[in-house]
Design brief:
Blueprint lengths: L5 E5 L3 E7 L2 E9 L3 H14 L5 E8 L5 E5 L9 H10 L5 E8 L6 H18 L3 E5 L1 E9 L3 H11 L2 E6 L3 E9 L3 H9 L5 E7 L1
Antiparallel strand pairs: 1-7, 2-3, 3-6, 4-5, 4-6, 8-10, 8-11, 9-10
Length: about 200
């Protein structure tokens, strides 16, 4: 699937609550940048809610939205993590982790009841959140002679490029960041400047 160069994520953590027949489902939504953050956040919630019976979660990572994982944490397969993930998919969000902590109320809800509970708790948390749109950006390192500074700066100003870092000597280095959809235009202009080196660094 092709995506444009924007994606939706959370500005800050948010919480939601759903109750059904005595069971409480507390949902915690977090903006994340890596899988390492998932373990830290889940572990912290397990310590905080050590009397809860389940700590189920799902996350989605990456601007291409293709990295994800679900965890049912002892609930029937497909009844917890997958419904959480489905909400993230339906809202087309990425770089988000949602953990739903369940306190058991003594009555079994059955798989349909669980699916509804985990889905609704997740929706509650996201409805309380501030959802933001971020751009997918590319970073390139440009190496050039000092005498070419004006030519480089013309391109920077023309496209409103961000200068992430710069080092000036006889040979100068500059790291530029710009929206992914501008890549062909920016590189096209830079390639017209003689004797410079342009290297891709990262997509951020």
């Amino acid at each position: 699937m092709l995506f444009d160069d924007t994606y939706k994520t959370l500005l800050a953590p948010s919480e939601g609550l759903f109750k059904d027949r005595g069971s409480r489902f507390l949902a915690y939504a977090y903006p994340i940048e890596s899988e390492a953050a998932v373990k830290e956040l889940v572990d912290a919630l397990k310590k905080e809610h050590f009397k809860a019976v389940h700590h189920c979660y799902a996350y989605r990572l990456g601007q291409d939205r293709n990295q994800f994982r679900v965890n049912d944490d002892g609930e029937p397969a497909g009844s917890a993590g997958r419904p959480i993930l489905n909400v993230l998919l339906s809202q087309d969000m990425t770089n988000v982790l949602v953990v739903v902590v369940r306190y058991f109320g003594g009555t079994l809800l059955g798989v349909p009841g669980l699916i509804n509970a985990y889905k609704t708790a997740t929706q509650e948390a996201l409805s309380q959140a501030t959802i933001i749109e971020k751009t997918v950006n590319e970073q390139y390192e440009v190496q050039f002679a000092f005498v070419q500074m004006n030519d480089i700066m013309k391109v920077v100003k023309e496209f409103g490029l961000k200068i992430k870092s710069q080092a000036f000597d006889n040979q100068c280095t500059m790291v530029l960041e710009f929206r992914k959809k501008m890549t062909a235009q920016v590189l096209g202009k830079l390639e017209k400047i003689d004797h410079i080196t342009v290297n891709w660094i990262a997509t951020v």
